[in-house]
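Much of what follows relies on a compact textual record of a protein's fold. The record below shows the convention in full:
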Amino acid sequence: MTQAAVAPPEPPREQPRRDGEPRRPSSGSRWRRGLIALAFLAPALVMLGALVVYPMIYTIIRSLYDRTGDRFIGWENYVTMFTSDSTFTAIRNNIIWVLVAPIACTVLGLIFAVLLDKIRWSYAFKLIVFMPMAISMLAAGVIFRGMFQENPNLGVVNASLVAVNSVFSDDAAYPGARPREDQGIVADRGLVASEGEVATGSTQNFPLVGIRQTDLPPETGNAQEAQTPGNDEISGTVWLDVVPGGGGVDGELGDGKKGLPNIKVDAVAADGTIAASAETDADGRYTLSGLDPGSYRVALPASNFDEGYKGVSWLSASFITGVIILSYIWIWAGFAMVMISSGLSAMDRSLQEAARIDGASEWKVFTRITAPLLAPVLIVVFVTLIINVLKIFDLVYVIPPGASKPAANVIAVEMWTVSFGGGNDQGLGSALVVLLLVLVLPFMIINVRRFKQEREQ
């Protein structure tokens, strides 16, 4: 009886692949793809490590050494940083920046984006609003420093305020006016007065210089002799003791000399009280009436010769941070507008139209539909601006004059000043950089997570 041949076992059959199911790559294929991806990413990884990772690690280590970098001092730089008044000022200003600038830019960007979406030629207006983004921060700082100069002849903002004030104010100031010497007139702290006392029934003239003919009021006439005073009066003339082109006698009235109108004149008694007051007419004449017989000192108050309203000292320590934040808003509101406009253009408009058909007002459409749908874009814009203002440097360094720089200080400027601007303490400067990194890092993580969530949706 012969033994039957045993057939070899059949190899397992490959399960048929379902339609649409991707074929799983082999382990060798996965390694090959990984190496190809790494080869393409290698230059970027090298640059990232050289320009970001290495400087960050080195800065953290450098912050633990002294200014020379030779002696390890541990946390001493951090203790010094948090006990310095300038650092506290910088942190306070950064908090103000974070609370004001991102909110203002985001709100203005939202308003511009929504309103410009409803008008014709919106692209032209968007171009105007976005145009400051084309200007460097350094150039923008120079522009704003010039605009807010205290001298109205240089700063357009104060020039506008002075022009508006001149419309509603009747001040007739003659800044820089002073009396002729050896004319029996003295000047003290802006006050111009007779050198001695003047008896009632007498005259007291005031020839003044230091005024330009072109600065005289339009109603100015030729200087005239004052009327003969009565027994209870003192009269006189106040004039510009200069003749255009030369000529005339100093201290005496004559042809070509102009009276000074609207100048207040006081009769001051011996006890310092004002016994009578008058105002010069278009020809510069005045009459102090109703005086008791006696002698008085005739004075032109200093208010006649002050500088008048010259605007606001915008670049002083009190206002400098507000001016810098305003310049930042002027630049970055256009960025917020463009980002929000892009989100608005991608939004489903049928929801808004349905709400309008149901009778919803434009305000309800905006608050109940438009704003909630734009919330992801608004968050990204807001967080991006927070990161940007925490690192603000250019505007704060350029706009403030020397006396106001300490009041406008921020962390980035403090770091540069300590490290390179005269302090030469790169250990303390590195500690400030670490502080700035700690403040910026949470907002960067928020932004990255937000981008990841949007990509997964």
Q: What stands out?
A: The radius of gyration is 39 Å.
